[in-house]
């Protein structure tokens, strides 16, 4: 599966983004939306497409306002998971 296929498959997570702009979705937004509102299977697909190191880089690079976009429970859970397995 490619990045664009992942976006197309989960386009309901980007309902507010116009169709012509969906190919321009940043890695940080893609990771944020899938971790916040996706399922564990969606997370596995994200890892398959990006690799665990890239997901961890994007996740841990979130600072300030971007970091606050994650739900507190989600941020805590994935910070534990990514620290342990990456």
Give an overview in words.
It is a single chain. This protein has 86 residues and is mostly helical. The protein has six helices and no strands. Helix 3 (40-50) crosses helix 4 and helix 4 crosses helix 6. The radius of gyration is 12 Å and the shape is globular.
Q: Please describe the biggest sheet, giving its number of strands, its sense, and whether it closes into a barrel.
A: none
Shape: globular
Count the DSSP helices.
6
Rg, Å, rounded? 12 Å
Arithmetic mean pLDDT = 92
Task: Please give the share of residues in helix.
Answer: 55-70%
**What number of domains?**
1
Q: Which regions have little confidence, pLDDT < 50, spanning 5+ residues? A: none
Q: Order of helices and strands, N to C?
A: HHHHHH
Termini separation: 21 Å
Could you tell me the strand content as a percent range? under 5%
Tell me the total number of β-strands.
0
Query: Given the helix and strand composition, which structural class is it?
Result: mainly alpha
Structural descriptors:
single chain, 86 residues, mainly alpha, 0% strand
Write the layout of secondary structure elements.
Elements: H1 3-9, H2 27-37, H3 40-50, H4 52-61, H5 65-68, H6 72-85
Structure, briefly:
This protein has 86 residues and is mainly alpha-helical.
């Amino acid at each position: 599966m490619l990045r664009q296929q992942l976006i197309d498959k989960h386009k309901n997570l980007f309902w507010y983004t116009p169709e012509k702009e969906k190919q321009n979705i940043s890695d940080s937004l893609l990771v944020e939306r899938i971790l916040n509102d996706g399922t564990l299977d969606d997370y596995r697909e994200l890892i398959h497409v990006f690799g665990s190191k890239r997901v961890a880089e994007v996740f841990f690079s979130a600072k300030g306002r971007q970091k606050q976009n994650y739900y507190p429970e989600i941020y805590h859970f994935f910070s534990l998971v990514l620290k342990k397995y990456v």
